[in-house]
Design goal:
Blueprint (H helix, E strand, L loop, with lengths): L1 H29 L1 H24 L17 H20 L1 H22 L11 H16 L4
Helix pairs in contact: 1-2, 1-3, 2-3, 3-4, 4-5
């Protein structure tokens, strides 16, 4: 299953890069908020269809009310990401948006791992990990140079 997880992560990275370019253009054509709203509606429609196909019904959706509200942050974070890339891409370019997005994800991932936030296992920030984060930050900053 590790191989499948890696393949899906690569696919998500490729899809995310396409999403940055497409949403930037879409936002320019119809408006940032309008593009965000439509993209979210498309995602909802497809995710409901997948849920119905895979689970044969609404699955565990009835358990949402019994989960802590902080677990719902994923939806808000997704909205933040899509809204931000839709706004930022036409202004600073796809490369800069993707570089900064990845650098931000890596920093936040390291903080989450280090402190075991959201119930994940704690993983220390080693010297190589810290160097990688710093180098990626430098790369993200350099991606702003045209």
């Amino acid at each position: 299953m590790t191989g499948v997880a890696v393949a899906l992560a690569v696919l998500a990275g490729l899809a995310g890069s396409v999403q940055v370019a497409v949403m930037g253009r879409f936002g320019g054509a119809v408006g940032v908020v309008e593009a965000l709203t439509f993209a979210t509606a498309v995602q909802l429609a497809f995710s409901v269809a997948i849920l119905l196909a895979v689970r044969g019904g609404l699955g565990g959706l009835h358990q949402i009310g019994s989960t802590p509200a902080w677990m719902w942050l994923g939806g808000l974070m997704g909205l933040t990401v899509v809204g931000t890339i839709t706004f930022a891409q036409p202004r600073i370019g796809a490369t800069a948006v993707i570089g900064i997005l990845i650098a931000g994800q890596l920093v936040m991932g390291a903080v989450i791992d280090r402190f075991g936030l959201f119930g994940v296992h704690q993983i220390a920030i080693s010297a190589p990990r810290a160097i990688g984060i710093v180098l990626l930050g430098i790369g993200a900053a350099l991606s702003l140079v045209r």
